[in-house]
Amino acid sequence: MTGKLSARALELTERRVPFVHARVVRAQAPASAHPGDEAIVHGDGTIDGFVGGQCAEGSVRTAALGALHDGGPLLLRVLPQGDAEFPETPGARVVVNPCLSGGALEIFLEPVLPPPLIEVVGTTPVAEACVAFAALLGYATARSLPELPPTAHTSAVIVAGQGRGDAESLRAALDAGVGHIALVASHRRAAALLDELGLTEAERARVQAPAGLDIGARTPPEIALSILADVVRVVHAAKAPVPERPSQAVDPVCGMTVTVGPDTPHLTTGEGEFWFCGTGCQGRWTSGGRATG
Prior knowledge:
Layout: H1 3-14, E1 19-27, E2 38-42, E3 47-49, H2 54-70, E4 74-80, E5 93-97, E6 105-112, E7 117-121, H3 125-136, E8 140-144, E9 154-159, H4 166-175, E10 181-183, H5 187-197, H6 201-205, E11 207-208, H7 220-237, E12 248-250, E13 257-259, E14 266-269, E15 272-275, H8 279-286
Parallel strand pairs: 4-5, 7-8, 7-9, 9-10, 10-11
Antiparallel strand pairs: 1-2, 1-6, 2-3, 4-6, 12-13, 14-15
Helix pairs in contact: 3-7
Pfam families: XdhC_C (PF13478), XdhC_CoxI (PF02625)
Domain XdhC Rossmann: 120-231
Organism: Streptomyces prunicolor
């Protein structure tokens, strides 16, 4: 990426904001984009960078937002109408832009999603082993004091103080809405602590106590392994938070699927509301050139 684009990507990553990295990998003249051109597509559909003209950009925006919500990478082929010379690429998604001025493009779209965030409370050997295992899994970790609430979008909280601030940590995690809370304690102490807190049935269901899967763990690393195995199950069962996908419409002139944003050309007439891929199709509609689909 360029320096400015790299800095923007780093900023979004540090803030745990999902985005899509788009890179042109093949281009056919007279396309305005070139191999290596890059852009960041934000969750609201705005684009930083350059990966093609107005029509190509619209196709990239729509496909990138789909990839962001599906969570997987995508190779997008943007072809002019009637073009058959650009070599096929198996597995690519193909869009045909009737309004494309010419030249075909292939653009690789890679969602950049924040890793699951696991908060660990305590400085015990089990807590330290949990942090180490989470790092091996590629998860982000945060260390917290018992009286502090978990950070936003925390996937799980592991309470491993072993008697130091456990009640405060559980209450803070429950109040923050964390869906999975693992309490490192014996069956007897865990039951007594949960009774002491006076939890509702719904709150009790969010606390795994004792923490982890029953694998006969004894040592701190074994206990941490059992806890993180359960956390992996929870993480994969939950979908990573992504921004709500903007609404879409079909351009009545060229038939393209258009992601609707503040700058999307549109008209309101007696026939209804219409959105367009660009000002060219909007002008054709206004001048009487109805759907060519």
